[in-house]
Amino acid sequence: MTSFPLSAVGRIVTGKTPTTSRQDYFGGDIPFVTPSDMGQGRYLRNTARNLSVAGAEAVKNCMIPPNSIMVSCIGSDMGKTYIASSRCSTNQQINSIIVDTDNFSPLFVYYNLFGRRKELRELAAGAAQPILNKTEFGKVTIDFPPLREQHEIAATLGALDDKIELNRETSTTLEEMARGLYRSWFVDFDPVHARAEGRAPAHMDSTTAALFPDSFGEDGLPVGWSSHLLQKAITFRSGKTWPAPLRSEDGVATAFGANGPIGKSISSLECDRVIFVGKIGSCGALNYFNGSFWATNNTYYITSKDTVSLEYARHVLLDIDWSQFIGGSSNPYMPLKNFDHLTCLQPPKPLLEHFERRAGFIRNIIEFLDASNRTLATLRDTLLPRLMSGELRVGTAREMLEEVA
Question: What global pTM score does this model have?
């Protein structure tokens, strides 16, 4: 292997934000990447803001082509690494490498830096605002095997990420199916409208159709349905401060904050299924979990009562505009009392049980895919440093992948 600094791997570009006083610089089709856009996956395809042609021209020296490697180099998001999927621009918190593809594989560079986030953060440690400037970033070195082997290593790791991304896309499609079913049945009342008009509900067998009434009451709801306070159907409980370490005899549990899992601790609570809603900070962020947990004090955890299923409750919660309940400015907060007036529909129990079976089946598949992705990600993260260092050969890694295929 031969070691090269990033400055020799390609041209390094530090992003720049066009002046925000020029509204005509924004709202076009050219992605403008910030660290907050860096979510899941390898390729960054969606951004909160886009530049116009004029905006891109204003920062033309900072534009980067597809397959550039973007690395966040300032603040708490330090070390996030993504690949540009199209021509784009970034803000000043991101350094990008336009890789010299005659000598280096962009995907190999991506995986090398992806596996070194902790190291990148440590390089910038010690300042009030951690920063890895362009010069220091360019000094970061990578050990490269011959180009052909770079491509082989990247392809091996990429096969795992391809599967992860396919599973993630499948999960998204399945979730859209479940959301569509919920809204058709319990928001738009499509089957009830169809029956009221003397039509058979679309894509529905007669047994399922018989669970819906064929008319509406004076309150505008399907006959036999009612509306009541949400807290009669589900229970909101506030989490507590997470002791460190938290100890009991219940075993290991996932600790949840407003943004989802934040690490492992020792369980003091246990529940088959529960919904988490962000209470402080990321207010309204929803997470679904099955297993032992500890809810931190910036989170509400929700269970359903006998009147509705938890899956139905989850879809009800997804329809709520949580922003209306947020108070505080420096640290947004949602007091429990703000939910007192929330209502939800109470369809007949046989219909809810039928929805639970169908939507629950979809949820089980999604959970299976999520579990598969965790396994695949663990394998990728295990193989990555060993392949990069030459400790593990590509052929051996491929044999390992065949065992989990």
Answer: 0.81
